Amino acid sequence: MAQNSRFPAWAWWIIGAITILAISILIFSLVLGVRAGQQQVEIQRRQQIGIALQRATDFQAEGNLQAALDEYQKILVLDASNDLAQQGIENLLALAGSGQAPQALPGSPVTSVISATTSVSPLDNPPLSAAATEIAPTPASILVTYWETAQRAARAGRWQEALTNLLLVQQTDPTYSAAEVSDQLVAAYVNLALEKDNTDNLEEALALYDKALALQPDAKDIQRERDLIEQYLDVLAYTGVDWQLDITRLQELYALEPDYRDVEQRLQEAHVGYADQLAGEEAWCEAQDEYNQAISVASAPEIVTQRDLAQTQCQLASGATPDDALRDDATPLASAGGAQAPASSGGPAIGRILYSSSDAVSGRSQILSVPVGKSMPAQTILQDAAQPALRSDGARLVYRNLRSDMAGLSSFDPATGLQLRFSIYAEDALPSWNAQGSQLVFASNREGDRRWRIYVMWAEENGGTETLTFGESPDWHAGADLIVFRGCDESGNRCGLWTISSSGANAAQLTAAPADDRPRWSPSGSFVTFMSNARDGNYEIYTVDATSREVTRLTDSPAIDGLPAVSPDGRWVAFVSNRDGGWKLYAVPSTGGEARVVAPIVGNLDNFLEHSLEWVN
Predict the structure, then answer these.
(1) Lowest-confidence range among 31-40, 309-318, 370-379, 449-458?
(2) In angstroms, rounded to a whole number, what is the distance separating the alpha carbons of residues 488 and 304?
């Protein structure tokens, strides 16, 4: 009785149910394992059949009928009812009947089989039966049969069958509809290559594309698909072996076709893998850069966390205090193309210049940061981005997003990696912050009439937007509610630089030259710098006094001097120029004087009007 009280009936029921459930799970797992094993065997069997079919076709095209028959026989061992193998054997017999001698080994089984159709003499043997006659038809009927079979197979999408019969046509009579046969062979090779590509048999796909190109060497679309596969195979070869080389290959492939297979994901993983390796070697600053490169491909919280840890270690190793990547005293993230700012002698030595340019290899736009007056390399901040504008507290960067799925204005928080999308129109450009860091002004021709307008919006996702006036290239005063822009009066006359408040009030003309463009306030608001290509025949840099309206010319060069930005202390004006044949950053005193080189531009500015500068602390 005591035992029964310790184990009541309901407990035995539960134990029994649990035991049955455990047995059921075990049996179910065994069944799944068996099925998985069967599926794997079936996959391997199909792969072997596919390889044997391709080899049989190649041997047949070379005239090696014995080897082709051996491959077909291997297929029938794996799949006794395989139609392609059976037809292939019939085609071999038909070839033998047409008088084409196979390359068979004496005494082998195929020798006796094919000899029965080639060595029979009507003097020694009775007439062939109807069945035997079908095996050895006339050469003309053989060609028609091959050709018609190839057409039916192609229409049905049975490209291996179509290829086999087209090769038989070509082998039986190379002059038979030669151009059309060649074109259809190319189509068969390409479609078979696509099938192999879709099933990840990339080596076979590559070989098939090569055969198509042998027939049509100038087919650029085929060459492109073939090159993509070859580059992707190179990527696979270096993955996990040589991260730097893998990243280089992936960047080349990503520039050629960003959406190809899983290239974007692999590029991010390669940057992370290399960053992890560098972190393991305590090369923290280099690791930080690689994490940032991974974030620029696609942001992920775990990568941001790893980047922040590497950044902290990098700063500790260099003796710097923790700070965000855009501060002047922060350790540089990484070299972009190896370009460094020269140490300045008598030139500016304050802050950093943010700028956008086009990558020389990929053509993608990028935002970089370079310290002023220090021999330190430029660092890449963002990819697929242009026209940077940093909020006064340095905690948020707004920019023109050039990703096709994120077109418009976006923001980036350097400390967290957080990215927000502020607008959804690809035409939105040249953003600028208000003094409080709560609103943005920008220009866009997003409307149906394609006229440029100035808009003001709240700096948040889906923030409210208001139309201010017609105009371009706005810049918000650093300490007052006053926006300078390129525009005209309400009647479309008196064009030049204008100022206006964010409510649309107090519009006033600042300059009277319609070509004056890209105005930028000085920090104190005492003057505005701008560029113009009409005042002196080519793009030069100027300033205009905000009170007296007096214009001063700062540069004098037959080359392009453009995209001005004022230093945080108001003493210098930065600009870009190609005056010595290559694009560089220059700075000239805001009161006039000698222009000095700040740093070479990483990338190019062939379309320099799509870019801009920002000089920050």
Answers:
(1) 31-40
(2) 46
